[in-house]
Structure formats: structure tokens, C-alpha cells
């Protein structure tokens, strides 16, 4: 999630932006979802990513992401359900409008995909909060694909899906009466349920209510957020059929103090499931600045955002995040609409790893995410993981040498060594061409 990103960077140099090869765009432009956009020195969106933009996995009937989304939507049946907003947003909307600081690592070109300086792929569904609140909706869910440059392994993919949920109330006595009544109703429901909740205080010195909020109002809203999400956790993880709670082992949920630029107080939720604590979502009391920008200053409320892949991998026992993108019938035919079932793995094909060692150029930065994007662009979903196995700086010349191990494996068929060699050669020539590396 946004709070844990570490890498800081700056716009990359000229050499790496070779993106027009697989799209029908004029020079200096890139075609995305049928429209052409100018590129500039920070453009880093790749053809592999552009090709996936129209896929909309969360809208495909019986796809696990669609089923999970429907489960959440049916839990929040009286909320508006949105799912068709464009992934192309301005960096201003993605970050500034949500009070992200100027130096937030999520803004770096190493971490996010930019079409150009003024347009990027959304990195989270929170980007739409202002617009949805402005449209007058006071309780809503929004499902969408989000994009982050990342490493390559079984649980990271540069595209994943989030559900954002929010509810706002009139910031007055009548609104707070509504919250208190809803809290009483939810508390009553949860008291009868098979769930144990480890809580943290709603508001503390390190997780304060906002200066413009009456602390009592903020407290009531934070409580509503927690009760509402506890009952969602019960819907998602509480059923005995999926390895969840049983009469002698209730569902365990714990709340953790957190920080997000656009909420205060802020929380994370973890669920104890099949022997492990799993981080499920981020949430909090919406920053008043967001509601002011949306022209609903007279309201206050809460929001949360959760990642669908992580939850679906757990509930369906799906071992590799690439499988969500599989078009293999052995994957797709396993699932039926509106039911969560256990994934039956079909044969696992042999893997084959290839190493590449090279000297980097001092004047062309090569971030690990740049390396991974080259690999994804050439190898697509044939790559299972990428690891840096060596890094060293020559004491005399001060040059840096890196060695990466790329593990190739198809999920659908056997990959021959010749094919893997061929892909590896393409990876190498892209590295030479875009980053000027010198193979060792
Ligand atoms: N947008 C956050 C992320 O992707 C998740 C999140 C946290 C959403 C807190 C929220 C929220 O609505 O209130 O990491």
C-alpha cells in the first residue's frame, strides 16, 4: 500500500522510452484505449501494460475477481456500485487532491506508470473519491484496475484490482443520530456472530481526529467504520465452508493504527485465516479537505480500500497472481458465477532460469522496477519471478555490476529451453538498447 513504498527517484533519461513499437501511434504519441496521447521525458507506460488496459477482469462473469466483487457489493447492497471509471488520471487527482505530500515515494517514475507529465495510470481507487462525493453519492463502492510498477513474483503484478468504499453523513445532530442508530444495529448483529475483534482506541495522540471535527462526531464515525468493516470481514471470511470460522474457532479480526495522507484517524484491518494474520485493507475517517474539494463540506464520513487479488488468492487457494490473467480453459472453466470454490491446480510445468550480469551506465539509472518492466514487456506472463542475485561496485572504476536471475515458467504449457533462450536474448538487447548496459 502507498504508505510502505520506499524507493525515491527522479525522471529517467531519454534512452529508455521506446514504447511506440507495438501501438499504432504517430511518433511522439502513444495510443491507449483508442486515443492518442503525447509522450514526454517521463513517459514509462509499456506496451505490455497498454495491452491489458481493456481487459476488465473484474467485469467478467464467473471470474474470481468478479465473484468477490459481487460478494462485497451484495454485502453493501444499499450502496451505489460503480465500476467503469477510466484508469487514466492526472497526477494531481491521484496524489495532490488527496493531500499526498510532494515527496511521497508513490509519485516516483520508478513506482508509477506515466503517460506523460500530466497523465498517469491510477495507482489506487481512492483517486475517484472527490468526483464520486461531488456527484452527490453518500454511500458507494467503486471497483477498478489499478497500476503500480513492481517486482516480479507470485504475489506481485503491475495491475491489480481494488474496491473502494465510502459512506458520509450530515455533520450535524441528525447525521450523528443516524450514525449512532446504525452503530447500535451493527453492534447487536456482531454480538451474536462468531467473531473476536482485537481493537485499538479510535482516536489517540498518534492517530488524531481532525482539527475541524468535533471529537465526538469523529469517534462515532470511526466506530461506524469499524463495525461496518467487521461485518464485511464476517461475510468474506466467516463461512465454515471456506476454511473460515467454526463453532470452536471464531473468526479473528484485528485493528491496527495506520497512516494515510487522506484519512485521520486511519486504520488497517487484519484477519487471522488458515494460521496467518493477513493484511486486508486500509481505512479511516475521510480528510475534510477531500470533502471540501468535493463541495460536501457539511458532511463527514469514512472510506476504505481493499485489494481483490490478495483476498481472492486466499479464498480460492490460487497460488500465483498471474493465473487471474490466464485465458486457459483449465483455469476459467473451474469457476461458476457467484460461488467461491477451491482452485484445483492443473499440472505445473517445469521452470527454467536464466541469469544476466551486466555493468550499468552511471548516467542512465536502472531501477529494479525498470528491469522488471523490460522483462514483462518481452516475456509477458512467461516469467514467474525475478531476483537480483548480485550487486557490486568496482572499487577502482566505481562502476556497478548487477546480476539478475529470471525464472521462466508458463502456467499453461511446457516452455522449451530454446524458447527461453530466445526471450532472454531479447531481454538482453532491450537492456542494451534502453539502458546502455554492458553485458559481462
Ligand atoms: N488507497 C489506499 C491504498 O491503495 C487504501 C486506502 C486507505 C483507501 C485508506 C481508503 C482509505 O479509502 O481510507 O493503499
| Series of H and E elements | EEHHEEHEEHEEHEHEEEHEHHEHEEHE
CATH superfamily of the largest domain: Bira Bifunctional Protein, Domain 2
Distance between the termini: 36 Å
Could you tell me the radius of gyration in angstroms?
23 Å
Assign an overall shape: globular
Strand order within the widest beta sheet: 3-7-8-13-12-11-10-9
Instruction: Estimate what percentage of residues fall within beta strands.
Output: 25-35%
Total strands: the figure is 17
Number of helices: 11
Task: Supply the CATH architecture of the largest domain.
Answer: 2-Layer Sandwich
CATH topology label of the largest domain:
BirA Bifunctional Protein, domain 2
Largest sheet: 8 strands, mixed
Q: What integer is the average pLDDT?
A: 92
Write down the domain tally. Answer: 2
Helix-residue proportion: 25-40%
Structural class: alpha+beta
- Poorly predicted runs of 5 or more residues: 1-23
Defining traits:
8-stranded mixed sheet, mitochondrion, Alpha-Beta Plaits, alpha+beta, 2 domains, BirA Bifunctional Protein, domain 2, binds 3,4-dihydroxyphenylalanine, disordered N terminus, about 450 residues, 11 helices, single chain, 4-stranded antiparallel sheet, nucleotide-binding
